[in-house]
Amino acid sequence: MPKRFVVAASEFPDLPRFPASFELAESLTAAAQHLHGTGTPDATMNAAVELAVRLLPGADHAGIAEIQRGGRLRTLAWTDESVRFAAEPRHGGQGPHPDWERLWATPVVRTADSDADGGGNTLSGLGLRSALSLRLRADRRRLTVLTAYARKPQAFDEDATRIGRLFTAHVSLALDSATVREQLTEAMRTRDLIGQATGILMERMDIDAAGAFESLVKASQRENVKLRDLARRIVDANTGPGGRGVNER
Fold this sequence. Notes:
The chain is an alpha+beta fold. The radius of gyration is 24 Å and the shape is elongated. It is built from 8 helices and 5 strands; from the N terminus they run H-H-E-E-H-H-E-H-E-E-H-H-H. It has a 5-stranded antiparallel β-sheet with strand order 2-1-5-4-3, with helices on both faces. The longest helix has 48 residues, at 158-205. Residues 1-10 and 243-249 have low confidence and may be disordered.
């Protein structure tokens, strides 16, 4: 199951809520520092939704969602339960935000008033009258979208949109950086884990490093288990009571 995150309270009391003129640059710099100070993609998104509410004029709530071709959607971070209900069809009941489909072709979509044409949609039912959706990432299969929501209609004007686009540029860079760091960290952990498992097999089977690694690869293929997961099993079994490992051959 995907991880989900709720921001309970502001962690950025020093950040002006509505920056103006040259103060915008200072506020965006402060936001970028907060974003790049996070350690993982999850923490980056967690910070981004809170910062969005503080930076974007008119915003009451914010969330980040991943949208796949065909409409499948999952919420990755949100500042209020209503945002999660607005995004996920199994909670909102009527499907994801109808304007999000347009984000495949354009980086920004604004909803002026969810009560227009009689309302009756998910946003209107939750008391969210307007929305500003900004594309963070996109490829042929999925979109990652940051959306700010407001209880008032027509809350997001051109100024809010410009600030939103500048902000999401910083979020995208920070998210890419955090993703690379996480991947490198995982690669290092995996390398160390496989090295430990190879050493255990070398000692137990009285073979050299190449033979131990080949044995590990064959066992991974035979059992249809990822190499890192099999290596973790061997290491855990070797360090557990009795030091008995799995049958690798």
